[in-house]
Specification:
By secondary structure, the chain is an alpha/beta fold. The protein has helices at residues 36-48, 123-126, 129-143, 150-165, 176-210, 230-239, 241-247, 268-271, 274-296, 313-323, and strands at residues 2-11, 14-20, 25-29, 68-76, 79-87, 94-97, 100-102, 114-117, 217-222, 258-263, 266-267, 301-304, 329-333, 348-353, 356-359. It is built from 10 helices and 15 strands. The two termini are 24 Å apart.
């Protein structure tokens, strides 16, 4: 599944724009402030149905316009499809697949998997553990789409248990059913996270080294629980009834787990430089791409903004080689020379001027 064309109307700085994406690498070139990042965000919005940069989607509508609209043409083994998203502030988002209205673009939607690197996404490395948990769960769902709602089912069970413990006093036995449900779903979530992390650990370490981390990089899942079965996890919840009732919330379980990114045995979150954190995030996304290609035969579309700016010439060359190794990728740069191979015939170049695109 690949994205072949994107059309925008009144999206951020663009009044109207249309661009064709290459089968492999597409390089988006233009001066700072011209709208390169806006284009990547528009591609993500068109394929996923939400922004990768902001939770306030009013920001997506061009100043002076009433609404924004995107269209993405995609191609797969079953033919061509059209994904449409329309958004007007204050009204429900309107989404269609091949002309049929849908509530969302779920795992079954005919679209490529999509991952994005933005400078602000460094929060995934240096921010709180909830961001890394969510990211790991999203990757696990991409590998095994049948488990896409496991995280949300666990969250609902947790919310029900928290509603009880927030009373600070409940009748004996009232927490038992929710302990059982939370343990059942939590144990499944822990297993999926373990499996996902194990598939990523080796390629993450290798790619981090190739991109310039001098010491060994490590990716490790660190669960809060020491349980080895759902029954043991349930027993841990039961042991903490009194403490949870005193606090008013569930303080133990998979919702407190951590995904560790380390370099030379030191956590990148607190002891890594910004450059090392950038390489760590890149290595993680590339490792996910490699695993998805191996397991599902569907490499994701990679959207990479300002990714070359802090890499030396050797690392830029290696990254370009990796990106051209399979699947689609879009990379922004202020100069085409910053992306090795950008002038090759197989590479599509999109020149960005303020509010306009010029494909070459």
């Amino acid at each position: 599944m690949r994205a072949s064309r994107i059309r925008l109307r009144d999206f951020r700085s663009y009044e109207r724009a249309e661009a064709q994406l290459g089968d492999g690498l597409t390089v988006v070139v233009g001066p700072n402030g011209a709208g390169k990042t806006n284009l990547l965000e528009a591609v993500y919005f068109a394929l996923i149905g939400r922004s990768c940069r902001t939770s306030n989607e009013r920001e997506l509508v061009r100043i002076g316009a009433e609404l924004t609209r995107t269209e993405a043409e995609v191609e797969g083994e079953d033919g061509a499809h059209l994904l449409e998203v329309g958004f007007k502030p204050g009204e429900p988002k309107r989404m269609r697949i091949d002309g049929a209205p849908v509530d969302r673009f779920g795992p079954e939607a005919p679209r490529p998997l999509t991952v994005v690197f933005l400078p602000e996404r460094l929060e995934l490395v240096r921010g709180g553990p909830s961001l890394r948990r969510a990211h790991l769960d999203q990757f696990a769902a991409a590998v095994h789409p049948a488990l896409a709602d496991l995280r949300s089912r666990y969250a609902r069970a947790l919310a029900q248990r928290n509603a009880l413990v927030a009373r600070h006093s409940v009748a004996p036995g009232m927490l038992d059913p929710w302990d059982a449900e939370l343990a059942r779903l939590g144990w499944e979530l822990m297993k999926e996270r373990t499996r996902a992390c194990e598939t990523l650990a080796q390629p993450f370490a290798r790619l981090a080294a190739e991109l310039g981390l001098p010491e060994r990089a490590e990716l490790a899942y660190r669960p809060r629980s020491h349980a080895t079965t759902a029954a043991e996890l349930r027993a841990e919840f039961a042991e903490r009834h009194a403490a949870d009732l005193q606090r008013g919330f569930t303080a133990h379980g998979p919702h407190r787990d951590e995904l560790l990114l380390a370099h030379g045995g030191r956590p990148l979150r607190t002891l890594g430089s910004q450059g090392q954190q950038r390489v760590g995030l890149l290595a993680l996304l590339l490792a996910e791409r490699e695993v998805l290609l191996d397991i599902r035969g569907r490499p994701p579309l990679m959207l990479l903004d300002d990714v070359m700016s802090e890499l030396d010439a050797e690392r830029r060359l290696r990254l370009a080689e990796l990106l051209r190794g399979g699947g689609q990728a879009m990379v922004t740069a202020t100069e085409a020379e910053h992306v090795p191979g950008a002038g090759d015939e197989a590479v599509v170049t999109i020149n960005v001027e303020p509010g306009a695109l010029v494909a070459t």
